[in-house]
Amino acid sequence: MTPSRRASLAYFAGTWALLTGFRAHAPLHLDTARDLLIARDCVLGGPCPGAGPRSSFAGLMQGATWSRLLELRELLGWELAAIERVADLLVACAAALVPLVARRLGAPANALTWALWFPLTLWTIGYPRLWNPTPWPLALVLTFLGLLHGVRTGGAPALVAAAAALALAVDIHVGAAVLVPFAVFVAAATARRPALALPAASLVFVGALAASSPGAFAENRAIVAAHAMAGLGGLVLALAAGLAARRWFAGPELRRARIVAALACIYGAVVLTLLSRVSGHGLDPRYFAPVVTPAALVVSLGLSPRIPPRVRLAIAGLVAAGHVGLWAAQRAFDPQLRLVEAEAIGRELYGRGLAFGDLYRHLRGPRAFDLVSTLAALEPPDGRAAGHETRDLLVVRADRSALPDPLPGDWRVVALEEGRVAVIVAVTPTLDLTRFEVCGDADDCTAIAVDVARFAQGPGMQWAARAHAGLADLSRRFAGATAGHYRIRRRLTEPLPRIALFRDDCRRWQLDAGEPAEVVAFTVTPGPRCRWWLPPLVEVDVRDLALSSLVAAAGGDWPL
Fold first, then answer.
1. Domain-by-domain residue ranges, the chain?
2. Transmembrane residues, as ranges (predicted)?
């Protein structure tokens, strides 16, 4: 077995063992719920446009690759944990290809290379979250494998293969499109026959995108057409720069490959940083996923001769220990619900005959909006109708040892992993959440009717409409607001319950004083991901000491 193949096997085995043996379960996230709902539309006969969700990159549509993986789960009836295992396998396969990329640079893929590539990859794809960038690493490593092989050989087939891999990377996440000008430059500068390689690679790239995600391709073409001159100018500039640099790349093939890898790092540092500034996202880690592989290889190539083999192994060991430590910390200290735990909660709630409409209006607890959006994707497709539940349902995650003894008879306890449980408590609400009022800074008030009819199952129902199911598009109406004000009427004032607030993605929720007894007012200070849903509240009868203790243990704050 060659050293490169041994390294590939070691990279795969080490990555696979760490990810599967010490898997931090994916947290609840609205993007995950949205993706699951899009897949459900395709499987259950709803709209299936051949596209993923809309991205924050100029409103471009993501491709359907990730959605199709989720469709497979839906078709086969797999549990959500199966998607985590598939995601881990894809990352391990990407790791196995890194030594093959290193071989194109004449660099041995050693422990230091893996120690750089592995944490950077997980960081940039948002591990352990499950969303569009999750399968990204494999496509990105394949892109550089094809590109660097093409640089060394100058042949069109390798560059065409790189174009196909880049199309897959763009389909998975449109952020990979930043590599297109760079790929044009490299092909123009290094191909033996650029007049053949460039048109062939372009046709494969465009054709692969059109075939894999026709809906996304059609919509993105219309969006890009509005900026056609700027885009065309950038590609022409990349082509001209590549043709002008052909003499610079005329040396030995190994030198060419190393220059391209170094340029990829520089390009990523400059262009991706500018992109993050222009888009307003800040320096989001996922912007840098497209250049993780060349960056890890270039840094390893420069440092490895200066670091003894034992020290390189020690660094890899520290990275592995860090991964295990983060896994242990997540299990011990992170209180938030996980995706696999939401599945168990869904089985309990839907097993009672409840529908999503019951949960949308009545679910309470920490991160309730994330949980209710996830549960939307788990509702059995049996045509059930809402209206069975008139009480609020408080759902919290707790240690079994922290539960009161004896347990109140109306509490439902769902067993989770590692001695934890989800506690479901039905609470009689006194606030009228069917109709209330929300105002922005300038008293631009909106009367809200929490109508669940649009979420009911039916022949024309679109499951994906349940994703990010906010209230009357408040996030758009109050986009520039510095605060929002909710005024909700009480149905009853006796006995007066205590109101607890939980944390969410908004900067702050507070209970306002000075209102009449029959009105409860809240003020919210928006945050970057504040969803303008219902206040994250729960009403607690002051005489119920067990429930008061449970709410306090779950992070509930009693503002008044």
1. 3-96+116-332, 339-557
2. 114-131, 158-188, 195-217, 223-245, 257-275
